[in-house]
Amino acid sequence: MRYDRQWSFYNPVRVRSGPGLIKELPAFATQAGSGRSEAGRGLIVTSPGFTARGLTARVRELFGDQRLEVIDAVRPNPDIKAIETARARLQGKNIQFIIGIGGGSVLDTAKSLSYLLSVDQPQFSLKKHLVDKAHLPQVNPLFMIAVPTTAGTGSEATNFATVWDSENQKKYSLTGPNLFPGIALLDPELTLSLPEETTVVTGLDVLSHALESVWNFNAGPVSISYAARAIDIVLDTLPALLKDPHNLDSRSKMLTGSLCGGICISATRTALAHSISYPITAALGAPHGLACSFTLPALLKFNAKNDDGRIKMAAALVGCSSIDELLSRIRELFAAVDINKLLARYQVSAENVLALSAEMFTPERSGNNLRPAGPEDVKAILHNALYNSP
Ligand SMILES: [Fe+2]
Question: What is the pLDDT of residues 60-80, one digit of tens each?
């Protein structure tokens, strides 16, 4: 890859990683609140499962008598309406900082609220902006601490949030230059009890972020270094983790991989594998990490034909002597996690998926792909992915 072409990189997220760090949340929040009013309160955004496991109560305890609001109804694939309902509930409560604790849906909801609660225009709505393309007012979002409980989304390190319009089965992205969380707090103890399927599909999402940022027009040498770190971690760690799911070091590694994946897509955004995934998730309910990863070997082969050295650079950084060797290692990973079983579970078959191919072009994703792809290319990629996968 040539270095004398234009590229850019910016990521201001402060990272803290280590077992048990969640106990330090109040100290981080105090830093976040400095300069803001004493009467303000914090907001915890999380999932019903986190509360059911007693963890929301544990976080509340850490904060003693500090006033906290809790939104714990976040469901997978967060919806515009649900976020606006939460915004209405919180308006006027003088929220000073937000802690998002959960998977990608939780972090993206928290990020959306960090923005919406800062907008001083009651007539502005998420729907008007995302669906009707109304102008996004430039404000400083509330300080947010992102605490991922899955190793996949990378949302803790990006300045965008995925939001769904479930009525129309459409996916949107709320994006702003200031939407980066202030702090990403990686505590591997929070991921120790993740079920096997969640561990696998979120881990595959990391791989997809990393590879998609490599075969991407926006890639640069810095983003490729982060991508390679993420690829290396997933290829090595995910199979080991399935054999030893309570291994704290492996869980920490996967969180680091996820963070690196987030950092690299914060510079490049994703590409065709993600564009292909959205109708599959909307129509079949396939988990995001599965829907955006089963095409990766086919896309690696497709993009390798236009490689200007960036894919080779990433392969070399992962310790592979060729792109073909990287391809083999990805196929070995897919066999180790039994991706075919997951594809069958969610009915991701050639027949079901090819029927959706016309909806698989979102220009802001597929347009990033290193090798331009038309409708026939996408059909060939799907065919290749579903008939040649291990
Ligand atoms: Fe993703």
Answer: 999 988 889 999 999 888 999
Is pLDDT of 365 > 80? no
Per the model's pLDDT, the better-predicted residue between 295 and 6 turns out to be 295
Q: Across the chain, what does the average pLDDT equal?
A: 92
Between the CA of 69 and the centroid of ligand 1 the distance, in Å, is 29
152 CA to centre of ligand 1 in angstroms: 7
Do residues 78 and 104 lie in contact, with contact meaning Cβ atoms separated by under 8 Å? no
Q: Give me ligand 1 centre to Cα 288, in Å.
A: 6
pLDDT of 308 higher than 70: yes
Q: Which domains does the chain show, CATH number per domain?
A: 21-186 (3.40.50.1970), 194-388 (1.20.1090.10)
Task: Name the percent of the chain in helix, strand, coil, to the closest 5.
Answer: 55, 10, 35
CA of 62 from ligand 1 middle (Å) equals 32
End-to-end CA distance of the chain: 30
Residue 3 phi, psi dihedral angles, 5° rounding: -95, -10
**Rounded-to-integer distance, Cα 252 and Cα 242, Å:** 14
Residues in a beta bridge with 92: none
Give the residue among 186, 185, 161 at the shortest CA–CA distance from 77: 161
Which residue shows structure tokens 């291994």?
A: 247
Reduce the DSSP state of residue 113 to 3 states and report it: helix
Neighbours of ion ligand 1 (CB under 5 A): 205, 292
57 CA → ligand 1 middle, Å = 30
Centroid of ligand 1 to alpha carbon of 260 (angstroms) = 13
Query: What's phi and psi for 148, nearest 5 deg?
Result: -70, 140
| Residue that is written with structure tokens 């409708």 in the block | 375
Q: Report the separation in Å between the CA atom of 174 and the middle of ligand 1, taken as the mean of its atom positions.
A: 15
Question: For residue 282, what is the enclosing H or E element?
Answer: helix 272-284
* Cα–ligand 1 centroid distance for 37 (angstroms): 37
Kindly give the distance from the C-alpha atom of residue 153 to the centroid of ligand 1, in angstroms, as a whole number: 6
Please, which pLDDT band fits residue 175 given cuts at 50, 70 and 90?
A: very high
Given a contact cutoff of 8 angstroms between Cβ atoms, the answer to whether 31 and 144 are in contact is no
Backbone angles phi and psi of 138, in degrees to 5:
-85, 110
CA dist 266 and 176 (Å) reads 11
Which pTM does this prediction carry?
Answer: 0.94
Taking Cα atoms as reference points, which of 205, 233, 234, 228 lies closest to residue 333?
234
